[in-house]
Amino acid sequence: MMRGLPGAFLGSFKTSYGYLSQRLYGVLTEEKYDGRLYPSHIPTSTVQKAILAVGSGVAALKNPYRHDMVAVLGETTGHQTLIKLRDRMRNDPEGSTILLERPRIRLSTLDLSNMSALPDGTLGREYLRFLEENRVTPDTRAEVKFVDNEELAYVMQRYREVHDLLHTLLGMPTNMLGEVAVKWFEAAQTGLPMCILGAALGPLRLSVSRLQLLGQSLGLWALRNGGRARCVLSIYYERRWEQTLDELRHELNIEEPPVSLIASIKNSSSKSYYF
């Protein structure tokens, strides 16, 4: 689908993106006030954001494993949706506490020894198991750069850092079918353009048999639960490690995934990462 796009355009975008990042970084290191709203912030104009959005969108479509481009696309297209998510968090007692305290989910903030000692079935133990089995880490989540509001930037950062927790809650692995299912849930839950794009394009990379599973049961389950669940950004996961997954799912109004489908996914050895 993307073969007709001129290679020169992508090359030009990569050059412009790199130059913009380096040029702005040089500006940001001046001692005088430089317009930054948070440490990783790169101030950009409306025109620059539009260029970044188009370029990152094309690059992400061409190669959905370019997490840097997917991140830029999310930051440059999700402003209005981030406002709505922020307001949902503000209207939730637990969510408002998160906005006030700004916790981060990083290896440096996780007590891995304590989490590994928790009983099977608890959020902390199953989240750690997910990280270990899939060889992933929350530290790989990029810092937000192009959101021109400090609080909204944190909302986007929080979204990124709870993504693997959603995999744990939903019982989805990191293969393509699991990633698409989580993205369908996120699209219904958050409304972020990046999530909607991933939900729309992800199925194109599935085999016929897995596409049937998505259309017949998994997709409907993900959309239904994403639309009705409590705001997943408003959960202070760091204070719930000892809570069982069953209890947390019940509290969030999330149904267990289809058992037979989960069995078929777990038998797959393929690993892939999407949006």
From TrEMBL:
Q: What is its EC number?
A: 4.1.1.130
Q: Which reaction does it catalyse?
A: a 4-hydroxy-3-methoxy-5-(all-trans-polyprenyl)benzoate + H(+) = a 2-methoxy-6-(all-trans-polyprenyl)phenol + CO2
Hey, which pathway is this one from? Answer: Cofactor biosynthesis; ubiquinone biosynthesis
Gene Ontology terms, MF aspect: 4-hydroxy-3-methoxy-5-polyprenylbenzoate decarboxylase activity; zinc ion binding
**TM ranges:** none
Major localisation: mitochondrion
Q: Which residues bind Zn(2+) per the record?
A: 163-164, 167, 179
| UniProt-listed InterPro entries | Coq4, Coq4_euk
Question: What membrane topology does this protein have?
Answer: Peripheral membrane protein
Coiled-coil portions: none
Where in or outside the cell it occurs: the entry states: Mitochondrion inner membrane
Give the cofactors, semicolon-separated: Zn(2+)
UniProt keyword annotation of Hydrolase present: no
The source's superkingdom equals: Eukaryota
Q: Which Pfam families match?
A: Coq4 (PF05019)
Assigned keywords, A-Z: Lyase, Membrane, Metal-binding, Mitochondrion, Mitochondrion inner membrane, Ubiquinone biosynthesis, Zinc
Keyword check for Mitochondrion, yes or no. Answer: yes
CC per GO annotation: extrinsic component of mitochondrial inner membrane
Function, please? Lyase that catalyzes the C1-decarboxylation of 4-hydroxy-3-methoxy-5-(all-trans-polyprenyl)benzoic acid into 2-methoxy-6-(all-trans-polyprenyl)phenol during ubiquinone biosynthesis.
Subunit composition and interactions: Component of a multi-subunit COQ enzyme complex, composed of at least COQ3, COQ4, COQ5, COQ6, COQ7 and COQ9.
- Name the family the entry cites: Belongs to the COQ4 family.
User: Would you tell me the protein name for this molecule?
Assistant: Ubiquinone biosynthesis protein COQ4 homolog, mitochondrial
* Organism of provenance: Danio rerio (Zebrafish)
